[in-house]
Amino acid sequence: MKLLHLDSSVLGPHSVSRQVSAAIVDRLRQSTPGLDVSYRDLALTPLAHLTGSHLAASQGAAPEAALREDIAAGQAVLEEFLAADVVVIGAPMYNFTIPSQLKAWIDRILVAGKTFKYDAQGVHGLAGNKRVIVAISRGGFYGPGAPTALGEHLETYLRWVFGFIGIKNPEFISADGIQVGQEHREKAVAGALKAASDLRAA
């Protein structure tokens, strides 16, 4: 069984989402003998954002020489995702949504004919055989009923993205209120780590 572990926080060792995603992977390693884990740090080695040249190349135009390496990197990312049985993502909230580094990765895996397709009945996800677990961290509180709930475009966006490609029940472990104060931060991190330790085996 293959597990793909992604982190997208720019905070390095100070990141809550990295701490929780690592705990999720540790839990799955312990509970799943022989688990094959690969790791990608999207902040340390970011993918380029898509440009018109990328889109032209995807339609058959000969890519510019400078673009070929990046296209190959995007293809490698897609193949890495397709090969994974389990995907664990560390995703902090930046300005109410995901980091741009994670968005660049998503743009490389949402590929027609690979992870979704359209027909007369609409869209069909092609990646529904994967388990996705996301460790999210948010500075405030954005749950249902909160005054700021309408500003939550992290979990809601990722649920939609993964649902679009056929993964209907992504799992989320959340650490909320980490910027409210030290007490809230410690409580949120402890709760998220406890949830990670209680995960079922891969």
TrEMBL record:
GO MF entries: electron transfer activity; FMN binding; oxidoreductase activity, acting on NAD(P)H as acceptor; oxidoreductase activity, acting on NAD(P)H, quinone or similar compound as acceptor
Record-listed E.C. numbers: 1.6.5.-, 1.7.1.17
Catalytic EC class: oxidoreductase
Annotated residues for binding of FMN: 9, 15-17, 93-96, 137-140
InterPro entries: Flavodoxin_fold, Flavoprotein-like_sf, FMN-dep_NADH:Q_OxRdtase_AzoR1, NADH:quinone_OxRdtase_FMN_depd
Presence of the UniProt keyword Chaperone in the record: no
Cofactor annotation remark: Binds 1 FMN per subunit.
Domain spans labelled Flavodoxin-like fold: 1-197
Cofactors, names only: FMN
Assigned keywords, A-Z: Flavoprotein, FMN, NAD, Oxidoreductase
Catalytic activity line of the entry: 2 a quinone + NADH + H(+) = 2 a 1,4-benzosemiquinone + NAD(+); N,N-dimethyl-1,4-phenylenediamine + anthranilate + 2 NAD(+) = 2-(4-dimethylaminophenyl)diazenylbenzoate + 2 NADH + 2 H(+)
Function in brief: Quinone reductase that provides resistance to thiol-specific stress caused by electrophilic quinones.
Protein family per UniProt: Belongs to the azoreductase type 1 family.
Subunit relationships: Homodimer.
Protein name: FMN dependent NADH:quinone oxidoreductase
Organism: Bradyrhizobium icense
